[in-house]
Structures are given as C-alpha cells and as structure tokens.
Amino acid sequence: MENNQSKVITRRDFLNYAGKVGGTVAVWGAMESLGLLGHSLASAEEFQAPKKSDLTMANKNGKKIIILGAGIAGMTAAYELRKAGYDCTILEARDRTGGRNWTVRGGTTETEIGGVKQTAKFDKGLYMNAGPARIPQHHITIDYCRELGVELEVFANSNEFTYYYQENAGPLSNTKIRKGTIKTDARGYVSELLAKVADKASLDAPLSKDDIDRLRDYLKREGGLSSDFTYHGSNRRGYKILPGGGLQPGEVDTPYNFSQLLQSGMMNNISGDYSFQQQPMMFQPVGGIDQIPKALEKQLPGVITFGAEVQEIRQSSDGVRIVYQTKANGNTKEITGDYCICTIPLPVLKNIPADFTEPMKNAIKNIHYAETGKIAFQFKNRFWENEERILGGITTTNMDIAQIWYPSSGYLTQQKGVLIGYYNFGENAVKYGNLSLSQREALALEQGAKIHPQYKKEVENSFSVAWHKIQYNQGGWAEYTESDLKNYYPILNEPQGRIHLAGEHLSYLTGWMAGAFESARIVVSRIHKEVLKEGKSPATVG
Amino acid sequence: MENNQSKVITRRDFLNYAGKVGGTVAVWGAMESLGLLGHSLASAEEFQAPKKSDLTMANKNGKKIIILGAGIAGMTAAYELRKAGYDCTILEARDRTGGRNWTVRGGTTETEIGGVKQTAKFDKGLYMNAGPARIPQHHITIDYCRELGVELEVFANSNEFTYYYQENAGPLSNTKIRKGTIKTDARGYVSELLAKVADKASLDAPLSKDDIDRLRDYLKREGGLSSDFTYHGSNRRGYKILPGGGLQPGEVDTPYNFSQLLQSGMMNNISGDYSFQQQPMMFQPVGGIDQIPKALEKQLPGVITFGAEVQEIRQSSDGVRIVYQTKANGNTKEITGDYCICTIPLPVLKNIPADFTEPMKNAIKNIHYAETGKIAFQFKNRFWENEERILGGITTTNMDIAQIWYPSSGYLTQQKGVLIGYYNFGENAVKYGNLSLSQREALALEQGAKIHPQYKKEVENSFSVAWHKIQYNQGGWAEYTESDLKNYYPILNEPQGRIHLAGEHLSYLTGWMAGAFESARIVVSRIHKEVLKEGKSPATVG
Known about the structure:
Flavin_monoamine_oxidase (chains A, B), Flavin monoamine oxidase family protein (chains A, B), de novo design (two linked rop proteins), homodimer, TAT_signal (chains A, B), four-stranded mixed sheet, FAD/NAD-bd_sf (chains A, B), 542 residues, alpha+beta, globular
C-alpha cells in the first residue's frame, strides 16, 4: 500500500484487500483474468455458434428443428442453427415477427382479448415501441445489432430536464420540478448532514483522519457546499434567470425545504437510474425497435409460416409432431421434426396440450406474468422541446400514469412527435387494462395535462396496449418470486425430451430482449450438443 | 402545511417556506410568473429580432454594419441584422467560417504559431470537433439549431461504462474502473455512514422523526443498502459474471475498500457531471459541429469576405473605417460603414490599433485566455465498442491527457472511429502545446495505452490543436477572475462609440457557443436601438 499514514484496518478491509492482488499489475490480460479490470463483463460461458463442419464430421446433417414463435428467441435460435445448416421451420401465430418486440405505426391494428379493434393513426415516420424500447450497453442485444447491421441511436433514459410530479405528497405536490433540481437539493442536504458529523469524527467507521478529510472534500463537491460545508443552493439546480450575454450573470433560486423534499417522495425515484440495466448510456434502433426482428427475419427467408396457431405439441422417442391451425382458413395441419424449440409465453403455453411431464406442466402454469401497459399520444407540436426544452427522457410521477416518455429522435426538426403517455405495472396496469380505449386515452390525457397543459390542445390521436390482454402474450414478461426460482425455474430450464423451452422467461433477464437472445443461445448449444451425441445415449421423454 | 407531525421550524425553513406561495396553485401561468415551476428558465430579456418595418418607419434604411470575424457571434449578428435589411459585411481572416467552431476532416490543414503545417488524414465520414463539441438543452444554441434546421443527435457526455483511471493515488491506481462501479460504491458507503448516524438522531438539523425515517429510506435506496443499512456491494456496480439465460444468475463482485476509494481521488470527479452546463442530455450536430456555422453562412450569401486580416479599427462621429489586408496578395484595403461589431478574440485584438478609450484598451489586454488543447486519433477499429462495450462518453484520468472522448455517432456500424485522446487545460495544455506534433501524439498514445492497450495496434493517424497557439485565437476562451469581472468586464460591454464588441468573451457563458449567440443578440439589439435613436442624441467617441 502506498499510503504511509497509519490506518485502521477492519476485517472487511483486510478481506477486500487480500481478495485483490495489490500493487501495480501492468499486464492487461492478467488483470482481465484476475477480474481486476472494472470492465470485465464476462459471460458465464462463451457462446459458440454451431458450425456446418460439426454436423458434417459427425454425419448428422439434415436435422429438422421446429420452432414455435417468431419472436426474438425463436428467430435467433433459427438464425444460429442455420449457420450449421439445420433445417429450421418457425410457426408464428401472428402475421408478423417480433412478438413483444412490436413497433406500432400508422395503420397497425390490434384487438385485445374482449376488446374492440384498434387502428393506429400515427403519421408516417412516427411510431410507438409498444414492448421493449431500450438497450443497455452490456446486453447481448448490442452484439446482435452489430452482427445484423441494425443502426443504433441513443435512447435518452435519463434527462435532468425532465420532471418529477407528485400528488398527495406534502407541500411540493402538484408542482412539476426538474429532476436535476431535486437531485441537486437532495445531494446538497445529505452531503451537508454527513459533512457535519464527519467533522465530529463520531462515525462508527474504520476511517483514518486523512480519510475523513477526503470524505468531507468529496461531500463538499458532491453537495455543492459552501466553504463551511453548508448547502445554500447551487446553480446545478438551474436558474430563476439564466446567465447570458453582457451584464446578465443569471440568478439562482433558493433550494427547496429539505423536510418538504423528503415528504414529496421525489427523492426516492432518484435511484431508479442507478440500476445496472438502466444506467446511461442506453440505445434504441433507429426507426423503431422492430428493426431487430426485421433484421433477423431477413436472415430467415422461407423459414417462417405466419398465421399458424399451435394446437398441440407432441413428441416420441423419434421426433416431435406439432399440430397447428392456419388462421386464414381454419384448417388443421401437422409438421414433424427432430427437435422442437418452444418460445410460446407460459400463460399461453399452459393452455396448449403438450407432451410434458407433470412437474413441467405444473411449473408452466404457476408462473405469473406482469400486467403492464402503455399508451402513445401523437401531438401536432413537440411542445416539450419547443416550450419546455426537454429533448428526450422520462418524466416520473406518482399518478397512475407513472411516467411520460419523450421521443429520442427527430429532435427539433420533426414537427410532430409521439409521447408515451403512461407505462405502468401491477394494479395501475390492471386498472387501465380494464378501461375502454377511449377511457384510457381520457384518463391519461387528464393526468398528463397536469404536467403538460398543452396536451389537450395538441393531441391528435392515441394507441394503447395492455399486454396482459394481448392474445398471444397474456402478460408483459415472466415474474419469478424467490420460491418460483427455487421450485419451478430449474424445471422449466430442463429439456423435455426433444422439446426445449426458450425465451426471456428462461433467463435472469426477464423483460429484456437480452433474456430472449441469451436463452436462445443456450438452447441452440444444448440441442447441437444433443445432436452430436445422438446414437450414444438417446433423448428420453419425461 | 399538510404534515400533522409537530415539526421543528428553523429560521431557514421559515424563510424558504414563506418565500414560496404555499398550498396548491392550479394555474400553470400563475405558477410560471411566480417562478414556482422548476422548468421556468427565463432569460433576463426576451430578444426581439430587428424588423424591416422598424427601419422603414424611422426612415433609417441603408445602414451599413461592418462585422469583424465570421465566427458564431459575427455571423449571428449579421443574420439577425439582415432580418431588418441592414447592409452587413463580414471580414474574416481565415478562408472558412466558424472561428473556434471548427470541424477537422481529412485534408484540413493548420499551422500553429511557430509550428509546422499539419494535415489531417481522417477517412471520409470521420471528423474531430476541435473546439466546442456539445450543447446543453437550456442554451440558446438549441434554438438556433431549430431555426436554422441543424439536425441534432445526442452527445454522450456521461456514460457509466467509461472509466476512471488514476496514477499515484493509492492502491486503486493503475486500474481502469468503470465510473458506474465507483459511483455505486461511493453512494453505498456514504449512504451507510449517514444512515447509521441518522438513526441516532444526533444530527444538528431541523428534521422531525418522520423526516429521519424518510431520509433513511432514501439512503437505503440511494446506497443500495441491505435491510440493516449496510453497504455490501450491489449489482448496480456491475458484475464479475453477467446474469444470462438459463441457470446463470450472474455474480456480483465485492465492493472496493472505502479508504482506498477515497485515496484514489476518483470520487472527486463524480460531481463534474452535475454542473448545469453538463447535465444529461447534451447534444451535437449530426456530421460535425461546423454544421452550425455552415447553416449560418448559408443565410449570408455575399456577405463574407474571406482572407481579410484586420489591421486597423477606426471611427469618427460619422462612421467606422476598417483597414484590412487581403492575405492572398498582401494588398491593403479599407471599408467604411455606420457601425462596427468586433468579435475578434481579445488576445488578437489587443495588437490591432483601434480607436478605443484607454480604459478599454487596458481591459482588452488584461483578460487572460485559457490554454487548452485536444488531440484526435483515428483508429482502424472501434475497440472501445467491440471489446469494452463503451458506446460514447468520456473516460477521466489524472494523467496529463485528462480525458478520452469516445465518438457519439456511428455506433457499431462504422468500422473506424475518431477518439479525442486528450483535452486538457492550464499547465498540461501548455506542456502539450510546447511539444512537437509527433511528440504530442507519442505522449498521448503512451498515456492512453495504459487505459486502452489496443491503442498502439489500432492507431492510424492523429491531429492535434493547441488553441493558445492558433494565430487568430491565441486561447480557448476568456477567463475572468472576480477582479476582472468587477474592473474590466463592464468596460468591455460598453459600446466604444460606433464600435461594439461581441463574442463569448462578452458573456457569462465563456467557452460556450451560447455565449457568442447571446452576446450577438445583445449587440444587435443595442445597435438597432441606437440606429432608431440617431439624430436625437449622437453616438460619441470615448
């Protein structure tokens, strides 16, 4: 250690220190393997796409894989397997690929379970990403975008110029306040509080005097404190009057009262941006999230049968047999193959007769899927940019709508824009899901207008989706409790004879496209290994 | 107040509370004028562009304005004045517009004072923004981009996946660590420390028991603390092994030792992102920062005389007379007009004979300009994206290079990329400025390679700039001390008879394009008012 000051060493310190190799390590590779480089984001296993030569050498060409569902998982599985020349067929119930990866444009239609037909009226060039919408850097989704040539742009997940807005939360209720302002005040007060007690060295912590000095110096910067370690406000929170040219130094406003700030609950939303999945920077495909399934689809000419609704999933020791109905004419058909990859979401799968074991059937029907919904509004003017200077990002509120998403493209130059007017979960999503389309629109307009009074004058049309009411999904994503992870998740991840489940629900990244990609890779590797082993130890049913 | 708990009211509380109108205020407009809406970013004065009708009605058409410098300030002044029909001529020493707003592309050349000619070798489509590079949402620059039709994209100023890297800073030296990891640990430990003392209610602060509870709840979320308010690490800091599909929950690493963290100094850089000028989201023009001067130039056909180096700035009670040299042939020319707007940076201006008062001349020569420099490297592969998963953003280090900027465009799809390899100030900038071009390259490569060992293998070419050595600038931006602001700044902002100074140096936004835009608007308004008043009270010299 290079620090010559006498230092209090606690056991935790020691373990931390011993756990790392001390001193200078010059070799990048060595550090990588020692896990010392903060950037090493190793996957548990390196994926190897199946190769044609694998099959040829083992004399295993011609294997037929039936894949159920042309979402991310299904198409990725086909894409990877076809690299080795597997004969893949995808059965897709809808007339489009993507599954939950769905971009709604003008003319898009949807009818929810028990609902009326809805047709989007967005202008050309405008769209709504109705399901997934953003990608963090560490997700494998990024790698697939690179491989498939999908162009990315920044998704503005975190913008200090967006708002918090709270109701029934004390004196700061019913006031839209910029997130940067709240964060500045929060940091200021909290830093001040700790700086004062750090001074007293009354902390029950293994810090030397030098450490305390460094900590106070950090707190002064972190909080924007004055020289006496007090928070008096800061220009970081914004201005009452902006600094400008000439003799205009600008004027900073006084900070909010700390007790009122705490009462408002706004501070509790700050950490939402810290999660590893949501840290900046995040990304989206240019022109709609469905550029990803479109790029996959392009790699799968002739592979996908659309409008094919699976009726039965059967298997024997020799192969699989899928019974499906062609929606166009109601005819029943069958297709056979060597293996099946089933990516059908569990709430739908549980109602399809299948040759699974009882424990598997039990697991399938016990997993709850998230109720979640969104609405998108087309506005004839981008008032949030033109009048409120918000370019992208998310406003957060404790009203039912939960959040407002501003578009991350077409800044300033696009006349019109599509906002997400609510994106909620649980009981709020159930509530909105139970409303008619026009009731959803009315309620979201009413709530949103408290934040953006321009809503009513500028709105042109809307499109809403309640994922738990979408026929082939019946939920946004799988939600595993601790008990589910223990009792059901391992079963779901076991192949059922020749049938393998894949999808975001077979991952620790539920709700993210990366979960579907990762799961597909695992199943592809597993089947490929199985095929290469065939004849040595047979696949068994159940 | 809606809080029924008995509450300690301090004087500061009372002042804060009384300073705001309490209770619910439903009318947005009223709140706007009361300054209660966190979004009100009022300028000190609303700018009104001069109108043709103003001049016609006052019979003041035909006024001739000579503008020195075709940077942002000069061209904006001409642009706004021409809306009213003023006859504007801009004299520009260079053969291009933009001044410090300069995008270096393949073929761009520059020769620094006392230096050798440098020619950029960037591939088509790649570029370096050598001066300004990013725009916050509240700057008037955004409004001009909208008005002029300049397309914007996000400038990734803050990316948790970029690194801190410190030397001579304790046990965490010589280790690149992701910013998100450092921030998570810092928040964790600091939140833990405060949560523990908050529990004891030993804080010298006017917080009720409910407030303390809310504060601790906030700290738990903020720090990612366990139920006993201790920081044990968090998946927010990233993973040793990422969560994936199937049975891969991922593995979180242990946090850094807090004392080592404090010693490293990395925590002190965290607040750099909090300044009001640097908060997310920030923006850049698509295709280079010089899209802004190009768009202005397009509005000024026939207005700009290039290669015209100002030699003398003269005036009488009747008008102004500018003597300049055409660089092409060395000839001396003169141009006369009614008013002059001089945007020449002060270090250059101080050496040009001018009819200014002595106090003005004294002010001009006493303002220090920042030493600052950048280097850009073209790499044949975007290794930072492909291998380290960094898409845009800035790595920060205490090495001389100070920072590495990753490009905010062409993610994944562009094969090659241009990085900023250093961007430094003060004595580091002087040091690099004194090196030869190849020495700068070598030193920046050597330092950067400690963070990115791929540097040496992938580098193709470089281009460096030391702004204090650029002939027509001799500095990055004006740097005012408190004493300068008191003694010199007001003088600089006073018109000198018919001559008005404009530019970022005549603003509280020095170093930002917005300073130039704001200053130009002020001078335009001032001259226009002067013109309309003419004949009533004459403009005086000195």
